[in-house]
Specification:
The protein has one helix spanning 2-14; strands at 25-40, 51-67, 73-80, 86-94, 100-105, 143-148, 158-164, 185-198, 201-212, 220-230, 233-243, 254-267, 272-285, 292-305, 308-318, 327-338. By secondary structure, it is mainly beta. The protein has a single domain, classed as Porin (Beta Barrel), CATH 2.40.160. Strands 1-2-3-4-5-6-7-8-9-10-11-12-13-14-15-16 form a 16-stranded antiparallel β-barrel. A hairpin with a 2-residue loop joins strand 8 (185-198) and strand 9.
Length: 339
């Protein structure tokens, strides 16, 4: 582990030892989305029933890119969300045949948790209210340094390694800023791999490994997936695990989560697509009699016209929030415009 960290730091320091960059190009991209969400129930009084809601989300990204005197490329991005908060940002240095280095400020992890999803609006547990679905953790909210292998490897293999020297969230960190503390983790490593063994088939996996100081159980998580496209159809299957931090002498805490996800989509034509997805999430306690499985199913459709995408999805939850007998039905209507 220490060797990997030393290599990461060596790469990071070496990329700054070259001539000045040429003048770059500035771009502005973004999207605006309006949604109408309906939450309803079909069960006990404890079920979720938040009614109807209208919302608008918008985010735009300032981007810049250029080329260095030695032929390497560079790019950067700064996201600004609907609350005018400057959060996610990154700088990427493309080193040709040596791969690339990316410096992240809360700009995403390497997790493959939802890589299998073929849903045309979005992974069911990542839409609308969503609930307390628990998946493999990652370095996505942490500030980190990533190395990615160059293109052209056999089977289109891509390997990435990401190191977060501290694990507390610090979305707005500017230069010369200190780190942010985390109760359990000192630092964290994350790894991912993806490849295309044959035409139409994609496979991959990820693993999250923080330096956890908990004495009962150290946190870790991971996922793997496979997708296949044939004609207008596409299929996906994925599995993920999450083991949370546990101290000693805990009393029937959640010991681990195990999630299964499969989906299918069909492109009716160039404008219309439909999909179906199911997810099962097992919450396993230290005492097996308390184990519970949350089940989610979703039907979705998406239609694109004149640069605007109209979508509808419905999600049905059983044992919502990992509570036995708790049900919820969620319906989303969305209009998204990219610019």
């Amino acid at each position: 582990m220490n060797t990997i960290k030393k290599i990461a730091f060596s790469i990071l320091t070496s990329v700054f030892v070259f001539a000045n960059a040429n003048a770059g190009e500035l771009t502005v991209t973004g999207a605006a989305k309006a949604t109408y969400t309906i939450l309803s129930v079909d069960g006990s009084a404890s079920d979720d029933d938040a009614g109807k809601g209208i919302g608008i989300a918008n985010e735009f990204t300032l981007g810049a890119s250029g080329e260095l005197d030695n032929g390497w490329t560079w790019s950067m991005n700064q996201d600004i969300d609907g609350a005018t908060v400057q959060d996610d940002k990154s700088i990427v240095l493309g080193m040709g045949g040596m791969g690339s280095v990316k410096i992240n400020i809360s700009d995403g992890g390497l997790q493959k948790n939802f890589s299998s999803s073929q849903s045309v609006y979005g992974t069911p547990v990542d839409n609308g209210e969503g609930g307390t679905y628990t998946d493999a953790a990652d370095t996505g909210t942490m500030n980190s340094v990533r190395y990615t292998t160059p293109s052209g490897l056999p089977l289109d293999t891509v390997v990435s390694v990401q190191f977060a020297p501290y694990t507390g969230a610090a979305d707005n960190n500017s230069s010369n800023s200190g780190g942010a503390l985390n109760t359990h983790f000192d630092d964290a490593m994350e790894y991912s791999v993806s490849m295309t063994p044959m035409e139409g088939l994609g496979i991959g996996a990820s693993y999250f490994d923080p330096d956890d100081t908990s004495k009962g159980q150290s946190e870790e998580g991971g996922a793997y997936y496979a997708t296949y496209a044939m004609g207008g159809f596409s299929f996906g299957y994925g599995k993920s695990y999450q083991a949370p931090s546990l101290n000693t002498n805990t009393t029937n805490e959640a010991e681990y989560y195990e999630n299964d996800q499969w989906s299918i989509a069909f492109n009716v034509n160039d404008a219309l697509s439909v999909s179906y997805e199911e997810i099962e999430s097992d919450k396993n306690y230290e005492t097996s009699t308390a184990d519970v499985t949350m089940e989610v199913s979703s039907i979705q459709a998406s239609y694109t016209v004149a640069g605007m995408t109209l979508s509808v999805s419905t999600e049905e939850y059983d044992n919502h929030d990992y509570t036995t007998g708790n049900k919820m039905v969620e319906t989303n209507f969305a209009m998204a415009i990219a610019f």
